[in-house]
Amino acid sequence: MLVLALDTSADIAVALVRDGVALAVRTATEQRRHAELLSPLITEVFAEAGLRPREIDAVAVGTGPAPFTGLRAGLVTARALGFATGVPVHGVGSLEVLAAQAFDTGAEGDVLVVTDARRKEVYAGWFRASAHEGDVEATGNEDVVHPADLERRGAAVLVGPTAASLSEVVGLPASGPTSLDPVVLARLAVARAARGVDQPTEPLYLRRPDAVPPGARKRATG
Questions:
Q1: Could you write out the DSSP letters of every residue in the chain?
Q2: Domain boundaries in the chain?
Q3: Distance CA 144, CA 54 (A)
Q4: Is the pTM value of this prediction over 0.90?
Q5: pLDDT tens digits for range 9-42
């Protein structure tokens, strides 16, 4: 199976994966220009692999949590590609991917995954290894909180891009991945699809977007 995997929950990550093997991977450390940079990276992975979009069997996309603009760019692109090629689009939680990477690299016990939510807050998710090999399951609802208010909830390890800087505050050792691997994203999507798991592509924002439409003008009276 040939899968295009992409995530824009933080940095930009794109991979073309066939039967679990990466054919091409591109990443960009950029949290402001997702819409501008994502399409060229997708073009590059297809060019490196010598393949065309119409040859893919599925699209896998990270569903956040993340800020509105960046996450929306990835989801809209994934849905458009799925529509254009007639293939299914599978959504996978971005924190779930990081948790799976942590277990892949030897994490033991439950893990607490944290990523930057801006406004001096973090997105947080609590996970354990699933009975399905290589997968994870949540042990609580994902949340957006100030680091000082983070609860361990039984977690033994802190994981994610901001883990090292928050280790002392949270009181957990930092370990595991610091960036999302789109190859693992593809793996989770394919395995869940094979089990018949529903994988919607609805975004997980956890808070309202910073930019909102202006209110209606007040009528002047005189």
A1: -EEEEEE-SSSEEEEEEETTEEEEEEEE--SS-HHHHHHHHHHHHHHHHT--GGG-SEEEEE--S--HHHHHHHHHHHHHHHHHHT--EEEE-HHHHHHHHHHHTT--SEEEEEEEEETTEEEEEEEEE-SSTT-EEESS--EEE-GGG---TTEEEEESTTHHHHHHHHTS-B-S-SS--HHHHHHHHHHHHHTT---------SS--S--PPPPPPPP--
A2: 2-93+180-194, 95-170
A3: 38
A4: yes
A5: 999 999 999 999 999 999 999 777 898 999 999 9
Q: Look at residue 62 and tell me whether its pLDDT is greater than 50.
A: yes
Residue 12: which residues within 8 A CB-CB, separation 6 or more?
6, 26, 27, 28, 30, 34, 37, 38, 41, 74
CATH match for 95-170 among 3.30.1050, 3.40.50, 3.30.420, 3.30.160: 3.30.420
**CATH assignment, 2-93+180-194:** 3.30.420.40
